[in-house]
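Margin note from the TA: students keep mixing up input and output lines. Inputs are the sequences; the output is the structure of the whole complex. Example:
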Amino acid sequence: MTKKPEIVLVGTGAVGSFYTGKLAQAGASVSFVCRSDFEEVQKNGVFIKSVLGDYSFRPKEVVRAISDYSGTPDYIIVATKVLPEINVPSLIAEKVDKNTTIVLLQNGINIEPPIMSAFPDNEIISGLAFICVSRESFGCIDHQDYGRLVLGTYPTGKSPRAEELAALFNSVDVKCETNEDIITARWKKLVWNAPFNPMSVLAGGATTREMMNSPETLKLVQNVMKEVLALAEKTGNPIDSTFIDAMIEDTSKMTPYKTSMLLDYEGKRAMEVEAILGNAVRLAAEKKLPVPHLESLYGLLTLIDRKNIENIAD
Amino acid sequence: MTKKPEIVLVGTGAVGSFYTGKLAQAGASVSFVCRSDFEEVQKNGVFIKSVLGDYSFRPKEVVRAISDYSGTPDYIIVATKVLPEINVPSLIAEKVDKNTTIVLLQNGINIEPPIMSAFPDNEIISGLAFICVSRESFGCIDHQDYGRLVLGTYPTGKSPRAEELAALFNSVDVKCETNEDIITARWKKLVWNAPFNPMSVLAGGATTREMMNSPETLKLVQNVMKEVLALAEKTGNPIDSTFIDAMIEDTSKMTPYKTSMLLDYEGKRAMEVEAILGNAVRLAAEKKLPVPHLESLYGLLTLIDRKNIENIAD
């Protein structure tokens, strides 16, 4: 690496702070666009309690809006939640230079097209984080487990930028692989997320173990997974059917834990209903593929999410 | 009516206490088999706060088990919840005489066959209560709204006993009709119960109005209703498809209210998961009819119910 890459993070929650913190540790120049956490991060930087070892760092610049950032970023890493009310293009547009790579560290399916249509000439890297991490308070991140990252040039292929990021991550013990078919990788992640995230909320705050141990509930998990596989295939991203058994097997070995959606629900934060379920349900409708189990979860989750957010005003 | 009918109530919750109280008011001799509420009811009788006018009454006998009842009942009215752990035949067997009519004032579908096989020579009347009523405390019932009752000789037809009960109810302003096809009437009630009861719990404590006002949720309501209709038809009890629109229309006019299942959930009481959903899902499997929306609700409700009951021990 000849030049320190200039990186700007938009969405300074747990995932974004953790991974950009590791990039800073690897020598990158990292700046933060903060919102609610501006004052704490500007004053104290970011502290990351991590199973990989605690560390802290100070972003090069801490700004309230990307327009206040003084440089020209090589990478804009977007780690906001995927919510209808968050317009990512408008959050980053002012600093998207012709050489800027936009990296999406976000959940869900079919989240790249709006970014690609807003910035058709920029490289987009789509990323999947497999990690248990939460924000304890502004500027203070708790990394409990896992941490693997998968990065892929969108829609397909290899790129020097993806390789550069992966090398940086691996240099600081974050296991990061590049994947030439990131869309299929995203579908594979949805195979797990689509059942377990919504169901953990709808079943009254259930852990993965509780869902696995209830036969009727496990059957629903599997039926949702089958619909995701059918939908992935319909969209040209087939996944081998043995993948479901492998996911179930892996999950049965996991320490029982609360999904990220359940943590959001319990924290009275908006859940990524549209990114995880809504986009899939709409794609299925376009493709005329029946997905009744996904639609059932979607019909319930939209309402519980709305009620949960409304309760904030109580 | 030449002779006062002798009636024994098993299941002295809100529904049973209300309706047998009205029968006492109409001149019947009513005795109670009490469990947790034995002492209060024996001491003070039953007080019913009702939109039809408050009233109180003392059961002729208050016993802890039906074997302690001194007479031979003309009617045993069963108004327990329908739960796998409640074995109705064993609760009533000792006083089921050859002339005893067994009346089931209970929710759900396909609940009569176990009673019929235990007492093949007795008349069974299956009843549906359309009422908002709750038990405020032992011996104290609050009747808030509605109250219509539908009674039918099981499996089909007319009977003097059903007519006698209906006449008693109507004499004290409880609107009671007899129905010669009570199985279809039960399916019709399930058309409403199968979506709204479970979904009110799963969507985080939603009122009927909240479910109606969320388009994705209303779509799920309608899809569940369609599956119930398809299943009713498969079992030989066809319901006109316009019935769904009528139910939706009626519900949109109702004062927003919490379903009985939601009240049970909030009260940490067992929900009638098997009577409302489990029996339907099993019937569908027998008939090889796909009911993915019902199965989705069932897969979630079994777990949330189990967790809710376990929490009682907290």
